[in-house]
């Protein structure tokens, strides 16, 4: 059965337990980090995902003075239902497993980087040291053993909850009806990690995306590409013909005919 | 700053890949519609040879750019697997087929093979050449993580630029081949020696250059107007290469093309160097176009 994680940002206290648990379970090295230069994000550390960082917390200051409000948002692979990276991968190294995770088989990776450019959320990273792609795996190896992902297990407030995809979608739909914001319910055709929040996720630095699935996007785009191509092709032929005719006319006129 | 996933090597690959497709298109058209005229045959041969060497060079750039190549040299072969789901796999197959057809056409030209078989290859190669050049754009258009690339104009821009650079390179190489390898390419030497025919080919080709440049300028304008965050091309760190491309890579060659035809009986000693200069600018411009678009997509959010 397809699993999902419901991320209820209203319950998040920004403790970073998920960040630490992820590092430990996935055997990711500690890396030196830098202070965030953006005052709105100064407590966000590390600043971004990396081959050694599958997940991190965004600490976002919204508003100023009296109306200042902290928002915390966990960032990781959202495990799309129909993932762009899986479609883009020329080697089938990246796969969507039936139980939810978008995972990858390192031995098939050729390091082309197309998944990095294809992912609408900017998640996959290339590990220059080991020459392979890295990203959150939804703790696929734990799910297989009936365990929760490391970050979900570590979360003390149940801001992260593992459930079936249908349940997560139902809860998010309900939250939307109550006027809350969601992320991952509609974006790129839906993801297996779904957020509920009091503020729009795009205010927290999440990319604004359409609901189009990869297949829908590609069909639309291909039609436009071919349409443009036909038009340009016709313009080329017409341009060459017209130009030749005009030159002939000019030459004739110059010769005084 | 975020590290670029696709750097200068990939820009070089997009450039020579587009040029390979474009040179083949020019070469095939010159042969199919050339009415067996000598200068058209030479242009066709030059175009086909350019396409073969460019696509091989492109494959070298491509494989060297693959992050895992140094660890597992056979890993690039995996790129054929996810066909037709992955557009990159589709492209890998297109480029492979194109390389084979380009090689066959080159062999048929070089060893003076049957002209009907050659033309048959050229018709297939024409489709594959357009597909190869267009693919370098579709690869970017389909990458949804880079909104700047998500425009339907990119494949057309790359096909037109591929034809422009392919034609420039094919014409550029004719005198060079004639001078350095006259024994293997007698017809090249004869054409260049008979100054009048070569001048006629250059002047005649300029009308195609003019049309290609004008359409490329129009497409880039549309791209600038509609692309996500495209304004940063004209003001940010990429503005220098971008304007170099527009002015030196398009406008100056357009001026030279216009001048080559306008001025009655342009001195041969001036026509050839002016054209060679223009071809070099077009080629540099073609590379800058790929570099600017490739980089812009990865830094504009």
CATH architecture of chain B: Up-down Bundle
The largest inter-chain interface, given as chain pair and residues per side, is:
A-B, 47 and 55 residues
**Beta-strand content bin of chain B:** under 5%
The multimeric state of the shown protein is heterodimer
The percent range for helix content of chain A is 25-40%
Order of helices and strands of chain B: HHHHHHHHHH
Strand order of the largest sheet of chain A: 8-1-10-9
State the share of residues found in helices of chain B, binned by percent: over 70%
Could you please describe the fold and organization of this structure?
The complex is a heterodimer of chains A (257) and B (301). Chain A has helices at 17-25, 84-88, 114-118, 140-144, 150-154, 165-177, 214-254; strands at 3-8, 56-62, 69-75, 94-96, 102-104, 125-127, 132-134, 160-164, 181-183, 193-197. With 257 residues, chain A is an alpha+beta fold. Among the domains of chain A are: 10-81 and 135-161, 2-Layer Sandwich (Alpha-Beta Plaits), CATH 3.30.70; 213-257. The N and C termini of chain A lie far apart (83 Å). The mean pLDDT of chain A is 95. By secondary structure, chain B is an all-alpha fold. Chain B has a single domain (8-299), classed as Formate dehydrogenase/DMSO reductase domain (Formate dehydrogenase/DMSO reductase fold), CATH 1.20.1630. Chain B contains ten helices and no strands. Chain B is globular, with a radius of gyration of 19 Å. The model of chain B has no long low-confidence stretch (mean pLDDT 94).
Task: Jot down its keywords.
heterodimer, A: alpha+beta, Alpha-Beta Plaits, two-stranded antiparallel ribbon, 32% helix, B: 301 residues, mainly alpha, Formate dehydrogenase/DMSO reductase fold, 0% strand, globular
